[in-house]
Amino acid sequence: MFVLGGIDSSRVLRIAARLVELKETVAISESSAGGLIAAALLTVPGASAYFLGGGVIYTRKAMGALLDLTPDKLGGIRSATEPMAALLAQTVRGRLGADWGLAETGATGPCGNRYGDAAGHACLAVCGKRKASRILETGSSDRHANMIAFANAALELLDETLLRAD
What we know:
Blueprint lengths: L8 H14 L3 E5 L5 H7 L8 E6 L3 H8 L3 H4 L7 H15 L3 E8 L13 E7 L3 E7 L5 H21 L3
Parallel strand pairs: 1-2, 1-3
Antiparallel strand pairs: 3-4, 4-5
Helix pairs in contact: 1-6
């Protein structure tokens, strides 16, 4: 087992084993989780069999430079929404040629974001053979705890979606 403070290691190992079993790959776009999702997936030995890469897409500048998602391509979709998470998951999947894309966008705290979402708000999405998304509201302004909660919730969504994959 690995140690990455607060991340559900058994879930990460299950995801890794399932991706290897399926001979499939994943790419990650995360924002408020700050790289914890990718770090968790990379702690498993042999991660290169399923992890293609990703990025911490924390600003509009990063979104444009790393994912080529410029304001004109967003069609009015704003950050920290399920449609944005879905677009990020689809885009990172396509840009890296992965079987699955996983994305997170939110507001960790201690304050909310400029769009009016409270601290502890995250939107998560998976794009692949199946698509899924969800919103997480922790109700907490604890930045560190929210980052861990966002990463765990994203990994949970990927795990659930992979279990339904054929």
